[in-house]
Amino acid sequence: MKIMMLGLATGAGFGAATSLANALSSPYTTLGAPLAGTVWAGAAKVLSLLVGLGWAWAALAVVMGWLARTWTRGAPAAALALVAATAAYYLMDALVRDEPIGWYWPEMLMWWAASVLFGSVLGVVGAAIERPGVTGLLAGLTVPVGGAVQMIVLPPRPGVAFARETVLAEVVIWAVLAIGAGRAVHRFRAARRARTAAPALSSSAVRTGG
């Protein structure tokens, strides 16, 4: 139950923060217009680029699965987090734009269905990250590899007006992806070395005892 509540709260916060960052970074919204041209608008743009990408939402589901530890808890927790994130995102959009929430229902329902389907799978992936061997390695590389593919195919470059913010966001994203991939590979290699060293230590103990 705790992991489900955590997923609900984390997802809602993530979705609301993403919508708010988008609004603050745009000079065409009520919230963003007063900040246009300031360092705060630039910071909001960087944050918007970081959390608004598909891989970041996928990472949210994977993290929830990792926290849950088991796939039976990770799948529903991750799906719930994405459902909550989607709801909070559109609710905040409606509030910021002063528009009826009913306008967003068709799109929200579509993303809710995707959240349940893909969120469950990503939750299972997250729960497998701490497993030894190739399973844990592949699970740990899911977000870094997926994020790298998105960055190559669909980089977050909305226009030259935000060139500096875009470059900073891309540097941060690539750094996070590299750290995530490095951690997964390090865990895999460390576990393999530990398994290799165990028989040698055991044989040494036997010889010493004899």
Q: What would you note in describing this structure?
A:
The protein is globular and about 60 Å long. It has 7 helices and no strands. It is mainly α.
Provide the descriptors you would attach to this structure in a database record.
210 residues; mainly alpha; 7 helices
Helices and strands in order:
Elements: H1 2-25, H2 39-51, H3 54-68, H4 71-97, H5 105-127, H6 133-153, H7 163-209
Condensed summary:
It contains seven helices and no strands. The protein has helices at residues 2-25, 39-51, 54-68, 71-97, 105-127, 133-153, 163-209. The mean pLDDT is 88.
The strand count comes to 0
Largest sheet: none
Proportion of strand residues? under 5%
Listing every helix as H and every strand as E from the N terminus to the C terminus, the arrangement reads HHHHHHH
Query: Mean of residue pLDDT?
Result: 88
Residues in helices, as a percent range: over 70%
What would you call the shape?
globular
pLDDT under 50 segments (min length 5)?
A: none
Counting DSSP H or I runs of 4 or more residues, the number of helices is: 7
Distance, first to last CA? 53 Å
Radius of gyration: 21 Å
Structural class: mainly alpha
